[in-house]
Structures are given as structure tokens and as C-alpha cells.
Write the C-alpha cells for this entry.
Amino acid sequence: MKRWFSYFVALVAQVAAVAQNGLSFSELMFQPRTGEPEWVELYNVSEVPVQLSAFALARVYGDSVGRLYDLPDYQVAPKSFVVLTKNREAVLAAYEVACAECLLQCSQLPSLPNAGASLALLSADSMIVERLDYKPSMHNKMLRNTAGVSIERKSYVRSVAEQSNWTSASAMVGYATPTGENSQHEADYESDFAIRLSSSIVCPNSDDADGVVDMVYENRHEGVMATVVVFDRQGRAVKKLVDNALLGTKGNFVWDGRDDAGIACATGSYIVVFALHDGFAWSKKIKKVVRVRF
């Protein structure tokens, strides 16, 4: 009982630390294919930008934290991803990268043994924000070969320590989603509203399916009004998709990568902001990152 209580206290403290500090483990490539690098993906769960250099990574051995690896000077946008690797070009060559500028090269990072290990994200005061005890058994049992397959976190409101909260990235996305929304992401219905993107990339001049991004929502809250606006990285509104429209229980929004004038947006990352309210006490703001490319 004492051991269980100590674990519970530590878990509550860890969840509180994530809420305060913003960053959380999202995806891990610990068994890359030959010639390709390991990488770690973090997600900013908060509504404000987070300074990456205020954090460090480290391996954990039992109750002891190993060497600290400082992280680069980079600002992680709200509800956005950042990937850390020793070989940026190799990751770009191997996988579909949704946000190239969110993929950072680090001269040194903790090693990630194929057999599993404990990896910690630490804050500036060396407090463990999250600890991920990853292992090969987190992969889907049906996969015979897991080389080059990442493990993705399903939900950011469920504990990072819950093994069932992790699984293999989908074959449909090339077995990894560095800097993009996890292919195995589950809707978090604590707010009664969830949005899922068909893709994190849109190609404005394409006649194929990648010429638009479909944003599918599921709504469990009555009388929700939505305003949906696309912003560039400088915070300038480029496209208003919906203006205070009443939503049903299910539906979708579509963006073709063009601005309000019908002109294709420049290559880069854009933030789609969903401002939701019911006219009374309930309101929520959701942000998704979409990359325009040609």
C-alpha cells in the first residue's frame, strides 16, 4: 500500500508539472533503420509558447538521473510539436515531415537502446517533468519488424506511464509522424469537443487529395458556435473558414491552403484556431498546425 501511495503521489506531481511547464513526450523513434537516427518528439500541451532551452533530456537509471542534455534555443508554439535528432537531414529524407522548421538538430542527445530504457524530460530546476519508460512491447503485436517504426502517444490527458497509451505509428503515414499530429491520436473528450485533421500538409496547387486538408470534428456539447481562422507564424490572419457558425454533432471544415483572396499561401507552417463557445459559460480554443508546401 505504501509503495502504491508513493507512486500515486509521484504521478500527480508529474501531471501537475506538465500542466505548468507545457511540454510532454509525444513520439519516440528508438529503433531506426540502419543508417537513420533516433529522435524524440515533444508536444506543447499549453496555450502559450514554451522556451525549449529551459528543458533538458536525460536517461534515468532506477531512481538516479544520468547526464543532462541541454536542449536548443527554440520557441515551441502552443499545441505544436518539436523533434530532436542528431541527424536532421536523415529524418527529412526518411519520413514525411510536417514542419521542417520544427525539426531540430542536436549535437548530443541521450541514447535510446532498442531493448528499452527510461527517458526523462527535466525543467530548468532539474525537476522531472515527465518520465517515459519505453519498451518494445509498446509496439503493435502484429508488427513483425519494428525497425523504422516510431511509438506514438495516443492521448495527452492520459498518463505517459500508461503502456496502453502508446502504440506503433500507422503504415498509412510511413510508420512515423515527426513534427505532425500522431496517426494514432485519440480524441480527448474531457471538453466534449474533438477535431482530427486528414493531414498536416496541404498542397494548394494539387488536384489530388492533398490539395485540401479536411478537419473533422465530433461535438458532444449542445449549441456550439465556431469561428475558425488560419494564422501565419507571425500571428496574421490569412483565411477565415467559418464565422460564428452553429455546429452539429459531427461535421468538417476544409482548407485548400489559400488566403481570403484565393491566393496560395507561401510554403511554411500555419496555425488553424478553432474558437468555440455556447453563448453561456462554456468556451474552448483549439489550435492545429498545418504546413503548406508545393
Q: What stands out?
A: The helical segments are 2-21, 88-94. The chain has two domains: 2-173, 189-292. The mean pLDDT is 87.
